[in-house]
## 1
Amino acid sequence: MAIWVGIMLYSFAMLSRYDNKLIGTLKNSLIICMHHLPQTIIMLIATVGLIYFSCIYFTAFIVTIPLILYVDSYIFSSIFKKLEKDMVKKDEPEVIENEESEDLIEDTTDNKEE
């Protein structure tokens, strides 16, 4: 049950941020949920605990709902920033340094000066 709630938390966040199909969103949510297990546990405790507290004290909804949203969005933003940073690193082309090409550039500039 906890895994299912974790997948649902991540799936709604991923639906708002990325454009995937339903199966892709659920699959990616499961992967991220398991990969970031400590953050997922913190979100589950905060979300379920605050909802339970709100059910006992009904007027606490005024404070607990924004608190749940704040805690979850703070964790989601840190996870998604890290994932997007890793994706950008993979997409950057690798620069290969070649000593011969530098020598050729220097040689051509020397010929133009003479």
Note: The helical segments are 2-17, 22-35, 37-56, 61-91, 99-113.
## 2
Amino acid sequence: MKPLVEFCASNASSYTQSVIEALEQDPDLDVDVVEYGCLGHCGECYMVPYALVNGDFVSAATADELLEKIKAKIREDEESFGKDLPF
């Protein structure tokens, strides 16, 4: 199963649109990128760029840092579970 990266539409309009585009266009990544109206992290959404990676909350001070943290989380999950992620 592919890694799943979820974004909040409100956060995307403020912080993460560039991260979404980078993930979708990265030829080395095979991930599902989904944008929802709300992910229920409203306090964080207002303050910092964030995403849910395989259900885990990942945030950063900048969009570029978030992109790197997302990639690191995906690598970590793949090392732990192999390519057959249990979610």
Note: The mean pLDDT is 91.
